[in-house]
Design a protein that fits this description.
Length: 226
């Protein structure tokens, strides 16, 4: 059993429509149609069936129609296709797109990019070693962001002497596109809703990516000793 989840038999395999708010209120739970485990929706992926019977990812939880939920895991997404889980939950024949896990992964990368871009326009994030150090020193940081190609040694220098903060590792194009800069490998974001959104999207991305993310020397991928 996955940590933080529990089996349940009192929740339907589908919901009654789009989730209110970003991904529902904290404390609400959904059941994965593959693992049969009950989890908070912010750690899961919702799917709906389009009018032409195609399975469509609903990462924001807002598309109309009855929703089917999967844990944010590449293995689970792959199993849903091979085990006909969508057809059973929908009680109908459905078309599952090829490379479903890859489609969801790409969409989650875009959602992380959107969060950083919104934060940049709002003046809530900066990139570059020196600016990041200034924000870290002043205590203005809610999350530290680094690209997958970031140097572990340089990252360790960036966060040295600071208290613990969440750290997310993102594909290179997230920071490069958000800041319109080549080799943008470090950024920090102010505390607030956008920082929490980025952290939540990164947690889903990490599961769906299905690969270990590179860790800076002596620093875990979730947290750094700042």
């Amino acid at each position: 059993m996955v940590t933080g989840s529990r089996p349940t038999s009192d929740i339907s395999d589908t919901d009654n429509g789009p989730v209110r708010g970003a991904l529902g209120r904290r404390g609400s739970e959904r059941r994965c149609i593959v693992t049969r485990e009950q989890k908070p929706p912010e750690g899961m992926i919702r799917f709906v069936v389009s009018p032409d019977n195609r399975v469509v990812p609903d990462l924001a939880g807002k598309l109309p129609g009855r929703g089917m939920w999967l844990s944010a895991s590449r293995d689970v997404l792959d199993s849903a296709r091979t085990r006909q889980a969508f057809a059973r939950a929908a009680k109908a024949q459905v078309i599952v797109p090829d490379g479903l896990a890859d489609l969801v992964e790409a969409a989650l990368v875009q959602r992380m990019l959107d969060a950083v871009s919104l934060a940049r326009r709002a003046g809530q994030t900066v990139c570059g070693f020196q600016k990041c150090r200034e924000w870290l020193t002043s205590g203005r940081v809610g999350v530290v962001i680094r690209s997958e190609s970031a140097s572990p040694d340089e990252f360790s220098r960036l966060v040295s002497g600071r208290r613990s903060l969440p750290v997310v590792t993102v594909p290179d194009r997230v920071l490069e596109s958000a800041f319109s800069r080549d080799r943008a490998v470090y950024a920090v974001m102010a505390p607030g809703a956008l920082a929490q959104r980025l952290i939540a999207e990164h947690e889903r991305f990490s599961g769906v990516a299905g690969r270990p993310l590179p860790d800076p020397a002596g620093v875990s991928k979730e947290q750094a000793e700042l």
